[in-house]
Specification:
Length: 290
């Protein structure tokens, strides 16, 4: 079940915020885009996206985007939504918010990236993970999979009872990934690199969005995205080889793909068909692994 919003965000609230703080943008048409677990997004004109936290956790995470994205954006091989304007709290809205560049396209769960985009994503992640920037520590991303196991067990059990996706093969892959230590990594990560956070147009990746979970930790967290996006095992292998993945890192990345697939399918079966489909496709892609 999606987290409950802690504040009601509607078009009138966003209109008033933009008018009060960025009047030069207030003549532009405002259009609702979507609402995630942490933020509500409105398109503003043809060039901007207004992003507003809907709960305290989102407000905390958007501070990471404000702090880090301007610094790293020029150094990366794919576009990211570096804030163009930073909004401040008002009496009627209590958190920071941002105006970002708008990227044309659909999220990658709706429009699939072409096969050749696997190498572009590998180049992007290789570049990101080698930045000489220390991101914030996260209790949820970039950590050892052993730290995720206890909370994941009930979800795994539900999937075993309700679906055929969490089967003995997936369980074996998960057990293998738990054997590998990952506490010594401090790479800069996106932290939440699933299909809804990748914008695609005509099969080409246009941008990597939603950076609230940016952190330092194990790159396996981000590398899980290859099993979430690319069904062709050969294409995945080529991209992982280009990145420089060894056997241990691959096993941990598979473990993180299992983690994301489990959470997406378990929560999605209750309230979000798109998340459920993303989880199912990831499990299907994982079945080709040994």
């Amino acid at each position: 079940m999606d987290p409950i919003a802690e504040i009601k965000i509607d078009e009138s609230l966003v209109t008033e915020l933009v008018f009060k703080q960025f009047p030069e943008l207030s003549h532009l048409e405002l259009k609702f885009v979507d609402e995630g677990w942490d933020n509500v997004n409105y398109k503003l004109g043809s060039e901007y996206l207004v992003r507003l936290p809907r709960r305290q956790l989102g407000a905390d995470l958007i501070k990471n985007e404000i702090k880090y994205l301007k610094e790293i954006a020029p150094k990366l091989s794919l576009p990211i939504p570096s804030p163009l304007f930073i909004g401040k709290p008002e009496s009627f809205y209590k958190w920071d918010w941002t105006v970002l560049p708008w990227f044309e396209g659909e999220s990658a769960d709706i429009e699939k990236p072409n096969k050749d985009q696997a190498l572009r994503l590998a180049e992007f992640l290789k570049n990101l993970h080698h930045q000489k920037i220390i991101g914030p520590k996260s209790a949820n991303r970039g950590v050892s999979l052993l730290e995720k196991q206890e909370a994941l067990i009930p979800r795994m059990e539900r999937l075993k009872n309700k679906t055929n996706y969490f089967n003995s093969h997936i369980q074996t892959l998960w057990n293998q990934s738990l054997k590998i230590d990952s506490n010594h990594h401090s790479n800069l990560l996106h932290g939440d690199l699933h299909a809804r956070n990748i914008v695609v147009k005509d099969g080409i990746i246009q941008a990597i969005i939603d950076w609230g979970d940016i952190c330092s930790g194990d790159p396996a967290t981000d590398l899980a995205s290859f099993w979430m996006l690319f069904p062709d095992k050969k294409i995945r292998e080529e991209a992982l080889e280009f990145y420089g993945v060894d056997r241990d890192l691959k096993s941990k990345s598979i473990g993180w793909a299992i983690y994301f697939a489990t959470v997406l399918l378990d929560t999605g079966m209750e309230s979000n068909a798109r998340h459920a489909k993303m989880g199912e496709l990831t499990f299907q892609n994982l079945m080709s692994e040994k």
